[in-house]
Amino acid sequence: MSAVAVPTARRQPARRRGLHSVPDVAGPAVKRGPGPSLALGKDARSRLATAVRTLLESPGLAKAPDPVRLAVVVLASRTPSETGVVEIRARELGRWLGLSVSRVRHAVIPGLRRSGAVDVDVLPGEFGEDGGLTCRVLPIWEAQTKVGHTLRLTKPELATLLRLMEALMAPGWAHRDGRVTPAGLLGARTGHGAATDRLALLLLVLEAGETGRVRLCGGRVDTRYGRPVATLARLLGGSLSQAERALGRLESAGLVERPRRQTVSGMRQAARLVVPAVMAAHGGRHGGARRADGSVGDLAGTAWPSEDSLPQTNPQVSEAQERCARDEGDLAATASLHTDHSSIADVTSDVAEALGFSGYADMGSRGRPGRAYAHEGQAVDVADVSSAPGRRSPLCGDNQRECRGGGVPTAGSGSRPQPRVVDGTGGRQQRMRRVTHLGDLGLQVALAPVAYLWGQLRDGQRVVAARAAERALEALAGIVDAKAAPRTLAARLTDRLQEVGGEALVRDPMGWLLGRGLVQRPACPDPRCDDGIRLDTGADCPTCATIVHTRRGLRAQVAAVVEAEMPCAGPAARRAETEHRLRKQTTLEAQRAQIRRAQAEREVGQRQRAIARRRALEEGAELARKQAPCRGCGLPDSAGLCPGCSYRRRTDALVREAVDLAVAVRADFLEPAAVAELTQQCEMDTRTLLTAGCKRACGSDADPSMVAFVAPQVAQRIRDERRKAALRWLLRSEEAAAEADAAYQACQRRHGRGTEEAAQLAADAAGHRAAELLLRQRLAELSAARQRMTVMATAA
Q1: Alpha-carbon distances of 393 from 77, 167, 210, 322, 406, rounded to whole Å
Q2: Is the per-residue pLDDT at 668 higher than 90?
Q3: So what's the pLDDT on residue 583?
Q4: In the Cβ-directed half-sphere of 439, how many Cα atoms lie within 13 Å?
Q5: Counting Cβ atoms within 10 Å, is residue 530 exposed (0-12), middle (13-18) or buried (19+)?
Q6: Strand partners, 162
Q7: Beta 529-530 vs 180-181: how paired, if at all?
């Protein structure tokens, strides 16, 4: 191992600001072999894969560069569960990404700010550089208040993600106590494409199963690249060429393999995608060992697809279609694959030797297997389970108690919690019972605590109770996550059973379910409150606490007044007087509340009546407008203007614009009489052109309505031609020529010789801009001259 560089005094100010000072490791990073940090359980792998994909699919990160996306994942893995704020130096972040500190300061940190996914505060160093970073990953920060959110990671899950990131891309460093954290698999990979390689390896590890095999995407793919490249491209959200380069670099480093099986014809079948480090971390079980011919046998332990695996449009497909026997011939790489199925295990000698059959449990594992249905109703001794020696590391992706227990799910693990039936002893776990005659799995989970009461109901009562439970689930789905609604309703039924002392003390199961068990009992006006508990957070209801605090304050105030007025009375007399005054105060407050409600109802009624009156007036005005005759020809029910008159108005406006364009470039604005005469002559000529154009378009015997419809189009063409002619005339003026010459000379000075064409283009553009400006000025002068003529005519 290379020597360790001890932090110098220049790094001390960062430590005084409260940042974690981690010494850098000089020299090449120490390569880290596959260990238990890569051996993730199915639930933990699915949970972390869904969280990482959700984080990378945030609105600001969808089109962000790979270094910025990887930086968000690194910061998320290092997020403390207590504070949610990451403190890291820019140099240390660059070592995690495989980039230089300059690249981090000038590209990664601005990219994080632009994405809006990370709140970054920079602490300047000794020389004004970005020495320390205080970051907060906003999607994870916001998800902490949302029950059931995919980014609401617990402390063990964050620890598992950090261990996984260290195993893959840790830069390696030495601790002050002599311990050394070795570098990850890609810790020594730096430079161009390092961030892409690290992100690609992370996504492949999260998609790989215990055999190290990654499920390939389905559908048609480009035969030039192949299905493994297409799978990685969809994981990264980039192009096929980028994914091919990244996969080639990973394959050259020995971190990814693309083995092929040899068929009867001697050709190779479609390639597979295997991560050897994941297979080695799981001990090479389930037939994942490589064979002598370089191919990989059938993998029975292929990863199940996690939530929203890969793209939404092309789901992953079953590997059973890719796994063909030696006599089935070759498979076309572009075959259209069918829908997903679970992986089908072929019984081979490798699987038999590795004891990878279904239902197998390691020796020393105590507790029933996860798929065993026999004796499932028997209770498990939790003390024995917790003390049993574990065969797996606590960082295998599951809860530590689950790893020790060998199949007993606990709260906090990735599996769905099992509802418990509570009896009169106060919450002791009993045998698992199932609610029968229900097809919906959500109803079965919600009604599991009352399975005994459900068995006492008749068929008709079960139908009514099931409808009531469905309504309760719908109400809860509007408050909490829809997936968590059955568990919330099961918890409510458990609490209700604890209140009565157990199922055995319920005399009327139907009445208890409809009147007490399934109904929500809010203790305050907040609709999310149920018996003083917030349904969305599970904590105490703050509104109930406010009401209790207000009532206690009122009691203390009344008691103080009574004690001041009755100093010689006994405690019983003062207490009775206090209760009397409290009842009186409560009655008055109820009367005031009733008065306020009545007043609010009156105000609502008044507003509704005012809105109705206003709507009626608006509807009447709209009806009158539609029934009004045309102002031009008097046609009834024309909304004030018929189509023919509208066309004529548009035609007159276009004719006036065409006349103004012709007069603006010819008239002398200092002679009002000449301007008026020229305007009259141009208008006559324009009308003549308009009539001739309408005849050519419609014919001499055309309908007047057709002529009125075509006239605006002809007038618009005349206006556009007049504008082009005016611009050509003004382009030859001295002002436009001067602007063009100035632009030509400036372009020649700026670019030097040999740019004749560019200079000519610049001169033409400058001349056109000058002509347009002159035209606007002359039109403004014409309008001012006509206003002066109108004022003079009025005065005369």
Answers
A1: 19, 15, 15, 33, 12
A2: no
A3: 93
A4: 1
A5: buried
A6: none
A7: unpaired
Residue 240 backbone phi and psi in degrees, to 5: -70, -40
Is it the case that residue 285 has pLDDT exceeding 70? no
Q: Which are the contacts of 405, defined by CB distance < 8 A and separation ≥ 6?
A: 366, 367, 380, 385, 386, 388
- Confidence at residue 434, expressed as pLDDT on a 0 to 100 scale: 58
H helix or E strand, kind and range, residue 758: helix 756-795
What residues are paired with 257 via a beta bridge?
274
Handedness of CA 48, 51, 57, 59 (dihedral sign): negative
Closest CA to 122 of 111, 106, 135, 103: 135
Distance CA(462)–CA(469), nearest Å, equals 10
Q: Is 562 exposed, middle or buried (0-12, 13-18, 19+ CB in 10 A)?
A: buried
Question: In whole angstroms, what is the distance from residue 136 CA to residue 119 CA?
Answer: 5
20: closest CA among 74, 88, 83, 75?
A: 88
What confidence tier does 774 reach under pLDDT thresholds 50, 70, 90? very high
Write out pLDDT tens, residues 495-523.
999 988 888 889 999 999 999 999 999 88
What type of residue sits at position 769?
R
- Return phi, psi of residue 320, to 5°: -65, -30
> CA–CA separation, 714 vs 709, rounded Å?
10
Tell how strand 118-124 and strand 533-534 pair up. Answer: unpaired
Q: What's the CA gap between 523 and 544, in Å, rounded?
A: 7
**205 half-sphere exposure, CB direction, 13 A CA radius:** 32
Taking residue 742's Cβ as centre, other Cβ atoms within 10 Å add up to 14
d(CA 595, CA 616): 32
Closest CA to 329 of 268, 260, 258: 268
Q: Average pLDDT of 645-658?
A: 90
The token pair at 297 is 């046998």
Distance CA 707, CA 29 (A): 85
Residue 2 Cα distances to 27, 149, 172, 179, angstroms: 6, 44, 11, 14
Locate 259 and state its tokens.
């083995």
What's the CA gap between 494 and 419, in Å, rounded? 9
The vertex-428 CA angle with 422 and 432, nearest 5°, equals 60
Phi-psi region of 709 (alpha: psi -120 to 50; beta: other; left: phi over 0): alpha
> Where are the alpha helices (H) located in 208-291, listed in sequence order?
227-236, 240-252, 276-281
pLDDT (0 to 100) of residue 423: 40
592 pLDDT band, cuts 50/70/90, is very high
Task: Give CA–CA dist 274/285, Å, rounded.
Answer: 14
Torsional sign, CA 84, 90, 92, 95: positive
In this prediction, residue 608 carries a pLDDT of 95
**Spatial CA neighbour of 161 closest among 219, 101, 76:** 76
Residues 3 and 547: their CA atoms lie apart, in Å, by 65
Tokens of 256: 């990814």
pLDDT digits (tens, 9 = 90+) for 186-239: 888 888 889 999 999 999 999 988 888 898 888 888 888 888 999 999 998 888
* Beta-carbon count within 10 A of 70 CB: 27
Predicted local confidence at residue 261, as pLDDT: 67
Contacting residues for 22 by C-beta, under 8 A, at least 6 apart: 89, 92, 173
Determine which of 152-161, 227-236, 325-334 has the lowest per-residue pLDDT on average: 325-334
Asked if 212 and 274 count as a contact pair (C-beta separation under 8 A), the reply is yes
Tell me the HSE value of 56 on the side-chain side, using a 13 A CA sphere. 26
End-to-end alpha carbon distance in the chain = 106
Residue 58 has pLDDT above 90, yes or no: no
Mean pLDDT to the nearest integer, 313-323 = 35
Dist CA 228 CA 205 (whole Å): 14
DSSP 107: I
- For the stretch 5-29, pLDDT in tens is 333 333 333 333 333 333 333 333 3
Q: Is the pLDDT of residue 685 over 70?
A: yes
